[in-house]
């Protein structure tokens, strides 16, 4: 499989998990369920970032340190918010949840990952 196909698949999976998380909050599902989905999202995101970083090393991508910093920031923000959510009451929960870095994750996929994927595509690298 082309390496870029694997990344695209993981992006689709990640977006669908984020939609699932959004729905769970909108539908007032139990906190236990929401925390479980958050943990799943974070675990999958870590796996995805590790996959990208591995492919960056293998393909000799030049912006790797900058890109790794962006990954680290997104994980830290998600973990920080998860910690906050544990302390907020029902009426503030949705407000706080709206700070989840959805838009930043999508922007990361559209811009930072796109640059890397273009290079991978040119290299024709398979995983
Ligand atoms: Fe990505
Ligand atoms: Fe990335």
> What ligands can be seen in this structure?
fe (ii) ion
Helix share bin: over 70%
The CATH fourth-level homologous superfamily:
Hemerythrin-like
CATH class type: Mainly Alpha
Give the total of beta strands: 0
The number of domains is 1
CATH architecture: Up-down Bundle
Number of helices: 5
- The termini sit apart by 6 Å
CATH topology: Four Helix Bundle (Hemerythrin (Met), subunit A)
- Structural class determined from secondary elements: mainly alpha
Order of helices and strands: HHHHH
**What is the averaged pLDDT score?**
94
Q: Regions with pLDDT < 50 over 5+ consecutive residues? A: none
Give the amount of beta strand, in percent.
under 5%
Main sheet summary: none
Walk me through this protein's architecture.
The chain is mostly helical. The chain has a single domain (3-123), classed as Four Helix Bundle (Hemerythrin (Met), subunit A) (Up-down Bundle). It has helices spanning 3-26, 31-59, 64-85, 90-97, 102-123. The mean pLDDT is 94. Bound molecules: fe (ii) ion (2 copies).
């Amino acid at each position: 499989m082309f390496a870029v196909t694997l990344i695209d698949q993981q992006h689709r999976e990640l977006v669908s998990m984020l939609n699932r998380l959004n729905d769970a909050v909108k539908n007032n599902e139990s906190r236990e369920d929401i925390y479980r989905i958050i943990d799943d999202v974070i675990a999958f995101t870590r796996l995805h970032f590790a996959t990208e970083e591995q492919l960056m090393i293998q393909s000799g991508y030049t912006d790797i340190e900058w890109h790794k910093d962006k990954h680290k920031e997104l994980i830290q923000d998600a973990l920080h918010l998860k910690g906050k959510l544990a302390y907020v009451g029902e009426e503030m929960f949705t407000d706080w949840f709206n700070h989840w870095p959805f838009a930043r994750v999508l922007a990361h996929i559209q811009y930072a990952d796109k640059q890397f994927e273009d290079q991978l595509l040119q290299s024709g690298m398979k995983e």
